[in-house]
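New to this. Help decode both lines:
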Amino acid sequence: MTINFTVTVSTDGSALNNPNGPMGWGWVEHTRENPGGVSTAISGLSEDCGGASNGTNQIGELTAVLQCLREHPGDYPLVIETDSQYAINCSTTWIKGWKRNGWKNSKKEPVKNAELIKAIDAELTARTGSVDFVWVKGHAGNFYNEKVDDLARGFAERAGRGEIDGKMPEEGWSVLINGPYARGLKVPENRETRITQPLPEPEPKLGLWEEQLLAEVEEPEPHESTLVDQPLFHEDNGIITEELITRLNQATERFDAAAQRLQLASEHMDQAVAKLDEAIRRFDDGSWKSNHQDTLF
């Protein structure tokens, strides 16, 4: 099928009890210009979703983008709408620095979810048509954002209850199995997955007090904020952009200028105080002479 119009797809990821809770991903087409509303995905579907019994919302967001790209190859323009700044930055901005640093962040630690991000980069590189990412505010009444959120969350809920097998791309399973989310993970028996380390033994079930104590000392999974469109500090502190450096330099210059003005004002104040002291002294001297003039003769 020849496509001569822009295709728009909404993507989303969801995780219950994030991190390491039941997770889901989904994508939904909403190409208004499509004559007859025929799906442009190679599967013939206008929407799809999946997930696993354990994971994070970030893994879900990245998986949704990856599956969207794989279902929509070609030379037509593709627009991906998502409420995840994390997914957008991983796919377009942060990845540049990670490549230069050998897929290590600023702390010299391996980049999280690297296999999914590398797969997204490969799809973007191979695709002949343009791909644009558009951020939309989540849970703000956007019809397709709400629809794809329902798909992702719905799959996560069913996977968490054991009603449905997990559905993930190979890279997604690998990230889950070889990451900190393998405990309790249910992998379909017919799924061929690259396993670089054995699954850990299930840990004893913790009591409520123990879970609360553990939650206080464990580092929480970073998550994107939906309160602002473009935050000054990105979600991954490992990449300092040129824009941020420029802003910091400008702020430093303004601070230095303000300090100079303050110093100048302080000098003027000292001069004014000195003049006032001199005026008071002269006034006191004149007053004394006036009061004692008669006693001099």
Remarks:
- Confidence is low (pLDDT under 50) at residues 192-206, 208-239.
- Residues 242-292 form the longest helix (51 residues).
- Residues 98 and 104 are 6 Å apart (CA to CA).
